[in-house]
């Protein structure tokens, strides 16, 4: 049966579809590509705690499925994500209301003064770990961005290995608008994509930038068409999924070599190459070339 992409378009029948539906994030595997889709279009795919929990579950499913060769992270209804759900944000920041500076319940009310919001660092670390799980996947992860990609949304996209933007994409690091700093990996990952200066400017101003600027400054690597952008994202991911094992090893190698000195980085390249040569895909590439046919890789 045809597969309806997040944009609602039905496409050709596929060879393999494994699908589960969950309340706020959908997960389905098509042609070796796992589609992880934020599924709260009525909330512009804003992320509450349940979304984070389900994103983590989807990342674990990818990690456990050898048939998945790539991932597309997207949002349903033409919006990637408006960021953290404001009701959730309010709940997080008022978690300490009613407690005084000494941690006693109700001391603010007793003095007639407003109590400063509190934030649980352990909870924030858990939310951070959800995005990091996608960065750590050993298959290519592509963020397919349509519409708003704001706050936590842009930080999720930054945790993906590649970003593709449709003409409607509108991105912003919004946290300063609420008196906050980006704390879901934005100050770590964005400088590695667009540099510290541009990250600082975007985080301080909370201004919106469009798809053209995203491509120009290096936030996004791929442009999606206005017509059926999610179809194009799937097709790109499917090509990666059908590629050799080296495609799966590249994201980790590049990411981890950023933190290594030259000697260690060159050694890591050798180790990755030894792993690849010992697998079947290098032999298949050579054999297919000699036989004049397309290679049939197994991703190892």
Descriptive overview:
It is a single chain. 44% of the residues lie in helices and 17% in strands. It is of the alpha/beta class and 300 residues long. The protein folds into two domains: 216 residues, 2-enoyl-CoA Hydratase, Chain A, domain 1, CATH 3.90.226; 47 residues, no CATH class. A hairpin with a 3-residue loop joins strand 3 and strand 4. The longest helix is centred in the C-terminal third of the chain and has 17 residues. The chain starts with a strand and ends in a 9-residue tail after the last helix.
Please supply descriptive tags for the structure shown above:
300 residues; alpha/beta; 2-enoyl-CoA Hydratase, Chain A, domain 1; 2 domains; 7-stranded mixed sheet; 3-stranded mixed sheet; 17% strand; disordered N terminus
Approximate strand percentage = 15-25%
- What coarse outline follows from CA principal-axis ratios? globular
Instruction: Provide a count of the helices.
Output: 12
**Total strand count, please?**
12
Order of helices and strands: EEEEEHEHHHEEHEEHHEHEHHHH
The domain tally reads 2
Uncertain runs with pLDDT below 50, 5 residues or more? 1-18, 96-112
CATH architecture of the largest domain: Alpha-Beta Complex
- The average pLDDT score comes to 88
- CATH topology-level name of the largest domain: 2-enoyl-CoA Hydratase, Chain A, domain 1
Name of the top-level CATH class of the largest domain:
Alpha Beta
Rg calc = 21 Å
Q: How does the major sheet shape up?
A: 7 strands, mixed
Protein structure class = alpha/beta
**CATH homologous superfamily classification of the largest domain:** 2-enoyl-CoA Hydratase, Chain A, domain 1
Q: What is the topology, as strand order, of the major beta sheet? A: 3-4-5-6-7-9-12
């Amino acid at each position: 049966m045809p597969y309806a992409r997040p944009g609602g378009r039905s496409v050709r029948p596929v060879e393999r579809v494994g699908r589960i539906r969950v309340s706020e994030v959908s997960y389905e595997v098509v042609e070796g590509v796992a589609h992880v889709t934020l599924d709260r279009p009525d909330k512009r795919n804003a992320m509450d705690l349940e979304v984070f929990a389900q994103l983590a579950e989807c990342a674990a499913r990818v990690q456990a499925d050898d048939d998945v060769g790539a991932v597309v992270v997207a949002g349903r209804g033409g919006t990637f994500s408006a960021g953290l759900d404001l009701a959730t944000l309010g709940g997080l920041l008022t978690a300490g209301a009613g407690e005084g500076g000494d941690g006693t319940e109700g001391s603010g009310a007793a003095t007639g003064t407003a109590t400063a919001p509190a934030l649980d660092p352990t909870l924030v670390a858990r939310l951070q770990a959800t995005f990091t799980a996608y960065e750590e996947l050993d298959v290519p992860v592509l963020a397919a961005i349509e519409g708003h990609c704001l706050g936590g949304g842009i930080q999720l996209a930054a945790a993906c290995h590649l970003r593709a933007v449709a003409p409607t994409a509108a991105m912003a690091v919004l946290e300063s608008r609420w008196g906050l700093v980006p704390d879901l990996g934005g100050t770590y990952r964005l400088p590695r994509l667009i540099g510290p200066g541009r990250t600082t400017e975007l985080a301080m101003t909370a201004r919106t930038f469009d798809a053209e600027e995203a491509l120009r400054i290096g936030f996004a690597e791929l442009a999606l068409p206005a017509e059926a952008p999610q179809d194009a994202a799937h097709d790109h991911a499917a090509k990666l999924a059908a590629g050799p094992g080296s495609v799966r090893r590249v994201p980790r190698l590049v990411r981890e070599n950023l933190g290594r000195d030259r000697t260690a980085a060159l050694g890591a390249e050798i180790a990755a190459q030894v792993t690849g040569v010992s697998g079947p895909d290098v032999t298949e590439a050579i054999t297919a070339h000699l036989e004049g046919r397309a290679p049939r890789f197994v991703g190892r």
